[in-house]
Amino acid sequence: MQALVYLGKENMEYRELDDPRPGPGEAVVRVAACGICGSDMHGYHGYDPRRIPPMIMGHEFAGVVETGPMTGKRVTVNPLLTCGRCNACISGAPQLCEEQRNIGLPPHAGAFADKVVVREANLVPIPDEMDFVTAALSEPVAVAYHAVRIATRLSDRPLSARRIAVLGGGAIGLATALVALSQGARQVFLGETNANRRATARSANGDIVAYEPGGADEPAIASVDLVFDAVGAQATREAAFRMTRRGGTIVHLGLLPGGDGVDVRRLTLAEIAFVGSYCYSTIDFRETVALLASGGLGPLNWVETRKMSDGAAAFAALDRGLADAAKLVLVN
């Protein structure tokens, strides 16, 4: 098979490899589409010690099962690998499993390839009419779906009655805004430094007010009920605490290291709920597939596709800020 192999910092190569072989309880999936995640870019830059070259990254994917009981089925794949035995797994929160790991992290080869081996239990069938690029969005959109569900659970008012802001216009930030709107939010402010991404967000849904941080459209101090920080940098955490009203909520999705920007005094005096959101539950993932299949997020004009064979150039384009789309998906 052909695969896009990570060879070290900012070094990817499309090369020939042996076909993978499934073990007990596993299946081979022929990959049709696989999205580039921000964590893949983190590894590309050499910042993730878990990504040890040479290796195949990629965990946002869909394709056709080639072996086992589900041979011929069109599927997307939940990439979380968990123990299935602990209290978190049994209670429906496998993302909190202490043994949780991912497809696309050693020793589990990822899906930037023609084929990938996955657990049969992680296969999620998709409708015949659902295209593979849309299905490959299930993983990142499930992250957003889970965050919105957490925010809804913490509130005593519906999303339609809350003033909402999202910080970050990448795939997770934009998906969070779109999921919130699909679940009743009337308008979402979205802060993004890249002008082209702001334009992309506006074109995705007319109820998104995409603004430049520090610009005229940025929400005023203490004016927002609910903030989603999809970046997790010092600047966005500071912005979140600045714009959240007394009694409001901040949902933190960003995975950048460090904790600078968290205003503990304001958190206390203003009774702000500051909560983390990580990945998704199994139910979140399946409900996200259904949401995408129904067209509930509107036109997916924020997604760009490129050939898997051109994957090295796609990573380089993202690195240099030359990709305007919120999400790049590699297709075979």
TrEMBL record:
Keyword terms: Metal-binding, Oxidoreductase, Zinc
GO molecular function: metal ion binding; oxidoreductase activity
SMART domains linked to this entry: PKS_ER
Record carries keyword Ribosomal protein: no
Location of the Enoyl reductase (ER) domain: 8-330
Pfam family, one: ADH_N
Cited InterPro entries: ADH-like_C, ADH-like_N, ER, GroES-like_sf, NAD(P)-bd_dom_sf, Zn_alcohol_dh
PANTHER family on file: L-THREONINE 3-DEHYDROGENASE
Listed name of the protein: L-iditol 2-dehydrogenase
Species lineage: Bacteria, Pseudomonadati, Pseudomonadota, Alphaproteobacteria, Hyphomicrobiales
